[in-house]
Amino acid sequence: MTVFDNESTPMVTPSEVIEHVYCPRFTYYMNCLNIPQHEGLRYKVLKGRTLHEKRETANRDYLRKKLGCTDKDISVYLTSRNIGVRGMIDEVLYLSDNTLAPLDYKYAEYTDYTFETHRVQSTLYALLIMENYQKPVHKGFICYAKSENRIKEIVYTEKDFCYAKGAVREVFDVILRGYYPERTQWQNRCIDCCYRNICV
After folding, report:
1. What backbone torsions phi and psi does residue 90 show, to the nearest 5 degrees?
2. Which of 17, 180, 181, 193 is deepest in the core (most CB within 10 A)?
3. What distance in Å separates the CA atoms of residue 76 and residue 135, rounded to the nearest whole number?
4. Exposure of 71 by Cβ count < 10 A (0-12 exposed, 13-18 middle, 19+ buried)?
5. 92 - beta bridge partners?
6. What's the per-residue H, E or C state across 114-173?
C-alpha cells in the first residue's frame, strides 16, 4: 500500500539524483545555495513536459503487449522513506510473468548506448515500485519519442540497485554537510551548464 509523505519527510526526486550523477555541483548550487537552474526555460524540458501532457490523455487504454504488458497504471506518484526518494512514474506496467516494470518517456533519440542518468532514474523507479506494490521488478523500459517511440529495455542488476541508493546517499551528504563537491570529470558537460559562470 502506498504511503504518501506529507512533504516534511526529507526526500529527493529521481530528477535531482540524475542531476547529481551528471555533476555533483548541481546538488550544491540548487540545494545548498538555492540557485535555480531555470530549467523551465530550456527547449528540451518544455518539449518533454508537452510530451508527458499528451501521453496522459492519449491512448490511455493502450497496452504494450509486445512487452508482455497485461495492465498499467498511469502517472503514479510514489514515495519511499527507506531510500529517501519521491517521484512520478509515467507508467507502471503489469507484466505477464507477474512482475512489474516502470516505463519512462524521454524526449530524446534512441541510441544503443544507455545513458547513466537514464539507467539510474529507471532503477530508482524500480525501487519505488517494489516497495510500494510489494511485487518484484526485474526490468524497466524507456520510450524515446524522437525515435518514433522506440523502446529500450533495461534489465536491473544488484549493482544497479546499490549504485542508485548510493547516489541518493551522496545527494543527502552534500545537502546535509553543505560542502562543495568536486565537479564532474567530463568537462564537455560544463560547456552548456547553467552554472558555468559561477562554477570554479
Report:
1. -55, -55
2. 17
3. 15
4. exposed
5. 73, 102
6. CCHHHHHHHHHHHHHHHHHHCCCECEEEEEEHHHCCEEEEEECCHHHHHHHHHHHHHHHH
For 126, the grid coordinates are: 524500480
Q: Which residue has the higher pLDDT, 137 or 190?
A: 137
Burial call 163-189: b when 16+ CB within 10 Å, e when fewer: ebbebbebbbebbeeeeebebbeeeee
Residue 84 zone, left/alpha/beta (φ > 0; ψ -120 to 50; rest): left
Predicted pLDDT of residue 102: 98
AA identity, residue 121? Q
**Cell (9 digits) for 14:** 529521481
Q: How far apart are CA 85 and CA 70, in angstroms?
A: 27
Residue 178, Ramachandran bin (φ over 0: left; ψ between -120 and 50: alpha; else beta): left
Compute how many other C-beta atoms are within 10 angstroms of the C-beta atom of residue 63.
14
From CA 165, how far away is CA 121, in angstroms rounded?
A: 11
- Identify whether the C-beta of residue 127 lies closer than 8 Å to the C-beta of residue 162: no
Query: pTM for the full model?
Result: 0.87
